[in-house]
Design brief:
The complex is a heterodimer of chains A (292) and B (395). Chain A is α/β, with parallel strands linked by helices and 292 residues long. Chain A has two domains: 127 residues, 3-Layer(aba) Sandwich (D-Maltodextrin-Binding Protein, domain 2); 130 residues, D-Maltodextrin-Binding Protein, domain 2 (3-Layer(aba) Sandwich), CATH 3.40.190. Chain A is built from ten helices and twelve strands. In chain A, strands 1, 2, 3, 4, 6, 7, 8, 9 and 12 form a nine-stranded mixed sheet that branches. In chain A, strands 5-10-11 form a three-stranded mixed sheet. Chain A is elongated, with a radius of gyration of 23 Å. With 395 residues, chain B is mostly helical. Among the domains of chain B are: 36 residues; 226 residues, MetI-like fold (Orthogonal Bundle). Chain B contains 17 helices and two strands. In chain B, α9 packs across α11. The chains are: A alpha/beta (292), B mainly alpha (395). At the A-B interface, α3, α4, α6 and β7 of A face α6 and β1 of B.
Chain lengths: 292, 395
Amino acid sequence: MQMKSTTSWVPRRFLGTTLVVLAAGTCPGAHAATITVKGSDTMVILAQKWAEVYMSQHPDVKIQVTGGGTGTGFAALQNQQTDLCNASRKIRPKEVETCIRAFGRRPTEYRVALDGLSVYVHADNPIEELSMEQLEAIFTGRITNWKELGGPDARIILYSRENNSGTYEFFKDHVLQGKDFAAQAQTMPGTAAVLQAVSRERYGIGYGGAAYGVGAKHLRIRKDAGAPAVEPTEENVINGSYPISRYLYIYVNPALDKGPVAEYLRWIRSDAGQAVVKQVGYYPLPPELRTR
Amino acid sequence: MPPPAHGTPRVPDWTSLARGRRVRPLEWLAERVLMALAFTALVVICLIFLFVGREAWPIFAGRVDSSLARELQDVIPPEDLDKTPPERLRLYLGLTREQFAAMDRDTLRELMEVRIEAREQIPDDKDALLNTVRWRYLIGPHQWTGYDRPVYIWQPVSAIHKYNLVPLVVGSLKATLVALAFAVPLALAAAIYVSQLANPRAREWLKPGIELLAGIPSVVLGFFALIVLATLMQRLFGYPSRLNALVAGVALGLAVIPVVFSVAEDALTSVPRSYAEAALALGSTRWQAAWQIVLPAALPGVFAAVVLGFGRAIGETMIVLMASGNASILSWNPLDSVRTLTATIAAELAETVVGGHHYRMLFVIGVLLFAVTFLSNLAGEWFIHRLRARLEGQR
């Protein structure tokens, strides 16, 4: 008896849910403009925080944020499965080309935040600073022992990111000058994993967003051998003296850049949106790039 | 005499067992549904293989070209949009006739500008003209620009896409061999003990206990290896790289033990009791009977266990993705970090351009894995078949 009542109850409940979902899906004008955001894993925390703050101020807007990586974001933008694409690197010509083929226009690029890439080592490592040239030599595998840098006689253990990440490509383009990472570099699925590994590996070195700070030592970086060593602080990143910094971007199909989407983008680049950037641990845009 | 015409109604055989079908239509229906379900599994496997094979096929057929030759042709400046004959422009932009007809002037102009940007970003590199998905680059060494000797290298996201499979195959084999070296002796010892030596009470606890290992989600094993095992083993052995084939192999071994154990235990138990009893009657100890009589008799089954364990280990993804360090180094040293075939697919597939050469290469790896696991399972089945034939005295 008990059994029977459960079985007849289940389908009715499913039916009810389906109806509610259908009702919500079929009347878009009533309320809830939905904005979907997809892309860079580096930016997920930031994008979620933006969405959270914005939705609390604008209850009529729903924002869905997913990660997956910058490349995934661009693929979704091309297939028009997302409204906004978070990107931790600039769009590539190939991707622009696919976008133009898909919707006839070049996607609009917005710079939305600044990020400094830190180079981390274990807290007990005596090395305090490295030059860009040394970093290149370390990560391409030309320098393999800490001894060559004035440290202890031990093999350098390299930690890198998976090759799908925007951080990986940025580091490769700007620090390695486009050369290949050494095959010995271990690839980690996220900045947090790199940091976690370096904090446990006495002779490890890794790189990642400056926002993830705790647990390992951030090195000071010299632009070249003669330049002063610069710490990845907010001031140094914003004024450009810290050599490994990048913009974070949002790309949008120009046909969709209107109404709630345009408003959301404007808010992100306003002082209110940039305050969130700072809270999450990235660096706000210099004032001349913000919207009034 | 003419052959019987097709479609002649057969006289219902009311006396046969099939009679029940007519009397109980529900049972008949249930039987059909179950049959359909069973065949669906087979069909789904075939479909999956077809899908994977289809995505990888262009590389096997040599129809994919990863060289940058197209970008290196002479560019047409956007100002010449009106001067260029439409057919030449269409070929230059690589568009089909329909696409070309549907585009307005602004779009074409944009596309031409993008082509110039792409041209500027081409690395100044003699390798830019190589089609790197040809087999000689996939399996042979090559001296790329900037390298001082020919290397086997997997660097799919690079100015020049390098897709050498050798480091990944070696990586997979290395992790798998470590796993088997760890798991097989333990699992076999446990199987011999449980099936031959243990008293029934101990057996009742041990068998399900070991088989319960199979129920641990591999992500949990991977996490355990990443956080606990790696640190513990580094402290114990003091090697430089914290995540390596040894750590991944041991964690993988934990996943393989239940497979090897249950197949081997089955094989040992299926040796007729009379074998051991005869040995005991002739005065051998229980250990001698187990080691010298029962184990040799069950040897094909034990082989099958090892081969099936191999298939399980080489196909496992999550554990190696988390615990191996994923560096594509070509070396046989188990203390170096490894990147396996499975982890490569898992880590890279989400980011590739669908239909691009990187995407297709990952499917080539998929075909490779499918073939290897299929063959090892086939070999396992064959060994089990031989065991059965031997024990039933057909040979």
